[in-house]
Batch of 2 targets.
Target 1
Amino acid sequence: MFLKPLKDRLSFTLIVVGVGLVTALIMGNGLLAAIVAIAAVLSIGVVSARRAGGRSLDATDRPRRLRGEPFSFRSAWMINHKPNLEQVVQALTYQGLTPSSRSDLQGERVVVVGGSQLRTRLLGGYFVAPKHLPVRAELVIIDAGNRGQHKLELQVRDTIGLAARDRALEARYVRAATNIREVVEHSLNLPKGSADAG
């Protein structure tokens, strides 16, 4: 009962640091603190696996996020005219995202990047605002071939690199992706929440 909210909100890194600091304060011995912290994390992992139905700790049995695969969020809109990507990029720039060198503002594909690796690494993904999480967003226009209709696709992907990804960090990335999607909708005068899952 206590382990589930703990597992949902904290990564193993925070558990290690917490247990290590408490042990170091109580015992005054850094080496012993590290050993106790590692033992605590292993114990919590084994107990969590048993409570989840006795599944093995094999990597193929873990959810994708626990294997460290990047979060990815897709949205798509059907639009009756060709969207102005320059206008969208300008709106995203106000939110701290910048076009990458691979962007074609006059064409049909734009890549913007944002967030801060340094800030996220120093403070942790749980303690920075979602707009500061490292992300890469790609916008692609596809001619639907139906009376001038175009499909605009947005893919937002985390670029944090090697990291422990859990539900709490995923929730923060969902907020970051939602903010980007809402900026796109606002800049193109689309109804809020009108996107389909890509």
Target 2
Amino acid sequence: MDDGTLRERLWQGFAQLQTLLGGDAAGGVVAEEAGIVASFVPGAPDSPTLNAAIVVGSELGLDRLEQMRERWERIGVRRWGVWVDGANWTVTDTLRLARMRVTTSSPGMAAEIDDADLILGRCRCGGRLVRLLYV
């Protein structure tokens, strides 16, 4: 599996995580369209983690960015964010044009399961049995 495939899977995983986080949060709604997964959570107006868009496609137009900003504003969200692969210059240029700035990055990691040295374990946490996966 090449790095491009792993990177694509990583960002699809981020998008799925956003769907879980935003969709399960109080009053959260997830919108998926044209290479963008965004969550809108009025119950967490200061959480750019819950109120965020993940760009998995190759483009994000200024008009789409403005539509999301207006939607977050309508529901009272004060802080929101956009997550994108830093190598996606088309999208990062759009974000700079919109006067947004990079505040953090998430260095994801990926590997083929067959190539990973895995150790399965268990621990008891708060009365629950939790399965652990170590790489």
